[in-house]
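Batch manifest line 384
LIGAND: zinc ion
JOB: complex structure
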Amino acid sequence: MKIMSNINFSNFDIRSLVGPQSHQESFDCDFHVDAGSATIQDNHYCCSACGVKFDGAMYLAQRDNLSLSESVALISRMQKTKIPTEVLPDLKDKLKLYKINQSVNELLREHLQKDNKWAANARDYVFKSRELRSDIVEHAGIGFFPGSKQFIDNLVRDFDAELLENLGLITKSKRDKGYFSLFSNRLMFPIKNKYGQICAFGGRQLEGDRAKYINSSNSLIFQKRNSLYTVPSPTVEKTKKEVAVVVEGYMDVISGTQRADRFDYFAGLGTALNPGQVRHILRSYDEVIICKDGDKAGVNSTLDFIKSHNSVIENNRVSYIALPDNMDPDEFLRNKGQSAFYSIMESALSAKDFVASHALRSASKNSVDDLVEAEALDSFGIHP
Ligand SMILES: [Zn+2]
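JOB STATUS: finished
ARTIFACT:
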C-alpha cells in the first residue's frame, strides 16, 4: 500500500505483529485455513493459498479490522516513533467519534441511576429480572437512553449534531427540523473494539413492540459484520482464559461473565456468525465453544454455520453445544447454576457429532444407517 511505503519504519520486523509462528519457514494463514501456506518474505506477510501480500500496516488492518491509518498509528506506537502526519487527519476524525461515544456513554450510565419511573423500570430489568450484580453492570458500562426530547436537545447542544447522526445516536426527523433517537427508552450496551474504545451501542427495548434489540448503524468506526460484543473479565489478575464461548445475546455475555467466569464470552451483533469472527477469537484462545440458544432456531443456525463454514475453520479447536429445554445461556445459568453450566460445556460436540446428533435426529426416526449418516455428513462437508 502506498501509505506504508512512504513511511520508513526502520528496524520494524513484521514477525513481531504476526506472532512466534512466523519464525517458522511456513505457518498457518490468518485469513483462511490451509496448513502451512503463509510465509514471511521481504518483511511482508504472504499466503500462497489466498494470494495475499501485505506489509505490516496492511496486515494489521486486515487482521484486526482497522483502517490503514489506525494500523500505521499503532505500529508507530509500538516502534516508539512519531505518528506520520499523513495519517493524522483520518485519526483525528475517528478520535472525535470515539470521544463522543465515550461521553454519551457516561451520560447514559448516569441516567440509569436517575430518580424517575423510566430509569427505575430499566433498573428493575437489570437487577431484578436479570439478577445482575451492580459491579458487573458498572463494568459492562450499561446505561439507559432516556425517552425525553430534552435529552436529545441536550445532546445536540453539547455535541456536533452531524457526528451524532453519523454515529447513529440521533436521526433527523422528516417532519420538522428536530431530531429523535432510535435508542430512546432503551437499555444501552456500549460495544468496544479490541483497543477498548466504544465504537457502537446496542439497545434493548424495555417496553412496547419495537424491535427487541437494535445496534448502531455502520460508521467510520464500526462495521457490524466483523464486530463482536464482549465484556472483559473484571478479574484481570487471573490467569489468561483458555476457552471462549460464543453466545447469541448481550445478556448471555454479561450473565456468563458474572456467573461462570472460567470462560470469556462473545456475541455477534445481530448478523449471522461468520468464520472470520471465530478465527479472530481463536487468535487469543485455545478453544471456542459455540453455544447458541437451545431452541430450534439456535440449533438450525448452528447447523447452518457448520454447513457453510466447516471447511474454513480449525475444527479441532471449535466445538458446539445446544442447551436443553429451549434455554439460552443466561436462563440456563440463572436456573441451573454454575456447575451445571460447566459440566454441560464439557459435553460440547465436534462439528461431526453435532450434525450427527441433531440433523439426523429429525431425518430418520427409526434408525440412522451408516449410509444416511455418511451422506448427511458429506452434505456438511465433513468427511469421516
Ligand atoms: Zn491465506
